[in-house]
């Protein structure tokens, strides 16, 4: 007892040290600064494998990462499996095998989203993230392929989604970056790097640079290269909330080691895109014939050399009229068409007979506009067709392409033309043809030869509102 009294101060000091030491055993001390702190990721994150020298056993990887709902990987990273690969895998076409082999390897992917590209170009969504997969191999080698995919990209953008593009390699054309910026793409994932519009960056990663000047465009792009800059980074986690995208680099254990946060509400030029009439919609249709009701207005020049400058009202008996009764016409989902190419024909939702009495088909449907046309900053008509087309809105001509001006009959022939896929026509200057509420759209498609087996039709009407321009949203 005398010992305790004599050394009371010393024993109290030892007891304090013991208590402090034991508390350290119960506490996880930060080992890597603020980067070791777990970030709250929105539900349904997308995990993206970074490039590696070895192929990955995807089923085993997913088993070890049970929280992964959707996995993205370059095709060459995917180790061959004895059976079907998991449907939660969404690969990027990288040219390591043919497009046909890629399509056969991943039968769960959407087929022919862009006709002629198999499953190499497609769209998928998780949560409020819209993933758009492109074929950078063909884009970097062919101006035609670049244009086709950019048109497809612009036509597929969905309202209230965060659009992210996935490509195997960085696109080398400045046109890609220009159009991606105009379309409102919020991030591009390419070969282990992330490209983002600079004005969206809320919290930059630890090592971010500016893209080479070749990117050009209306918006500057920043680049983060976790695959090249972080030795222990294995994959990225991407998630999104209403106005935020988080991209987190993780190691093999899933621990965060770097991050990039985007605030998508920052850009006063951000576009609100919507499609009152989407690609793949249902249409009434019929083949051309002598019984097709067509009205020739008084004063109409059938040669097209002296077009009527005054607006006229079509009677309800004319097939182009909003009041026309089309209930006896057939109905089918677009794309609608016929082709002697079996691969292309399989991509059509509604297949037409290759031979008809007239080289033309006629289409009708209705769509709604939620506000007055003058409140939209842009209005677009997105068309897929072969060979020539004329589109009418509320009974008046909106677009004519690859076919002569003047009066058309069911026997009229189009100009020789290759299939046109997802071509965007800016029809903002014709906004007076549209009206708030119910609108009718009618279209006629003509082959370039009476014996041609090929015909294609699909159509979308898209609107754009730009924040900061006083446009009603």
Can you offer a commentary on this structure?
- By secondary structure, the chain is α+β, with helices and mostly antiparallel strands.
- It folds into two domains: 33-267, Metallo-dependent phosphatases (Purple Acid Phosphatase, chain A, domain 2); 275-466, Jelly Rolls.
- The chain has helices at 2-6, 8-25, 58-64, 99-105, 136-139, 143-156, 174-183, 226-229, 342-346; strands spanning 46-49, 70-74, 89-92, 122-126, 129-133, 162-167, 187-190, 193-197, 201-203, 208-210, 221-224, 235-240, 244-250, 256-263, 271-277, 282-287, 330-333, 336-338, 350-351, 360-369, 378-386, 388-393, 396-401, 420-426, 437-446, 455-466.
- The protein has a seven-stranded mixed sheet, with no helix packed on it. It has a seven-stranded mixed sheet with strand order 4-5-6-7-8-11-10.
- Strand 4 and strand 5 form a beta hairpin.
- The longest helix is centred in the first third of the chain and has 18 residues, at 8-25.
- The protein starts with a helix and ends in a 7-residue tail after the last strand.
Percent in strands: 25-35%
How does the overall form come out from the CA principal axes? Answer: elongated
The description of the largest β-sheet is: 7 strands, mixed
Spans of at least 5 consecutive residues with low confidence: 19-44, 213-219, 467-473
Name the strands of the widest sheet in spatial order: 3-2-1-12-13-14-9
Helicity level, as a percent range? Answer: 10-25%
End-to-end Cα distance, whole Å, is 82 Å
CATH fold type of the largest domain: Purple Acid Phosphatase, chain A, domain 2
CATH architecture of the largest domain: 4-Layer Sandwich
Tell me how many strands there are: 26
